[in-house]
Design a protein that fits this description.
The complex is a heterodimer of chains A (about 130) and B (about 130). By secondary structure, chain A is an alpha/beta fold. In chain A, about 25% of the residues lie in helices and about 40% in strands. Chain A is built from three helices and eight strands, in the order E-H-E-E-E-H-E-H-E-E-E. The mean pLDDT of chain A is about 95. Chain B has eight helices and two strands, in the order H-H-H-H-H-H-H-E-E-H. Chain B has a two-stranded antiparallel ribbon with strand order 1-2. In chain B, helix 4 runs antiparallel to helix 7 and helix 5 (about 55-65) crosses helix 6. Chain B is globular. Chain B starts with a helix and ends with a helix. The chains are: A alpha/beta (about 130), B mainly alpha (about 130).
Chain lengths: ~130, ~130
């Protein structure tokens, strides 16, 4: 058994695809129409055969209150690894990304937290 | 009314104190003479109670270093810098005590909530016991 997928619950798949590719820099891996929504995944260009991130619709009624509660407390839904948090922060700030936590040293890890514009906070982290 | 009460500690805001203590029939001068009604004392007491806990003091340290923190950032700073692995609920309750004492202000910005340090209630301490 191995882990090949992880997902974020997004309020709009088109908007999510733009943000996760054009802004964060991932690339689209699969797109399969499924009625109202699509099976839509992206991967890191640094690891195109690695874990896929599913941009999954948050249409279940329980999803929105859950997401809003996490955002209010500043809690990221998931975390991505970067080589240099400060450099990534500067790059993303330049693209208009909103951060709820600027880069901070947390023990051995440096982290920052950004808004994915689809109802989630995302942490970026470097050891 | 806790927040308005904390502001009243400075003693110069007579009208605010009278609003807080309409039934007392006393002036702030009387209050500052030491014969203070319970309602006024409890406001100052909240500051001391808030400062009595080491985790709450660590929260103030971290908010002094960087203002505008989310609950998540504060929890991570307490763990990674102070070895204080408090639960989210515990840190949330500490923040409520600090807010009641006027030492922390929280603000909502859209869907986010940020916390800031407010040291103004500490003036009541140095005004009461002067530093030479």
């Amino acid at each position: 058994m191995r882990i090949n997928l992880t997902s974020v619950l997004v309020d709009d798949q088109d908007k999510a695809l733009r943000f996760y590719t054009d802004v964060l820099g991932f690339v689209k891996k699969t797109e399969v129409p499924l009625g109202e929504h699509r099976w839509l995944t992206v991967v890191s260009p640094e690891d195109p055969d690695g874990v896929e991130l599913v941009l999954e619709p948050d249409s279940h009624p329980a999803a929105r209150p859950f997401k809003e509660a996490l955002v209010a407390d500043g809690i990221p839904f998931t975390s991505f690894a970067v080589a240099d948090v400060h450099a990534e922060f500067d790059r993303l700030k330049g693209l208009g990304v909103v951060f709820t936590q600027e880069p901070a040293q947390m023990g051995p890890v440096t982290t920052a937290v950004l808004d994915d514009t689809c109802g989630n906070l995302i942490q970026i982290a470097a050891m | 009314m806790c927040r308005a009460g904390a502001g009243g500690c400075h003693g110069h805001d007579a009208s605010r104190l009278r609003r807080l203590l309409p039934h007392q029939g006393v002036t702030p001068v009387t209050l500052l003479s030491g014969k203070c009604p319970l309602a006024y004392c409890s406001v100052v007491g909240d500051v001391f109670k808030a400062l009595a806990d080491p985790t709450r003091r660590a929260i103030l340290d971290e908010l002094q270093e960087r203002g505008g923190q989310t609950l998540f950032e504060l929890i991570n700073r307490l763990i990674s810098r102070h070895g204080l692995s408090s639960t989210r609920q515990a840190v949330s309750q500490h923040l409520e005590v600090l807010e009641a004492a006027g030492l922390v202000r929280s603000r909502r910005e859209g869907r986010y909530k940020f916390h800031d340090l407010d040291t103004s209630p500490l003036k009541a301490i140095v005004e009461r016991w002067h530093i030479d």
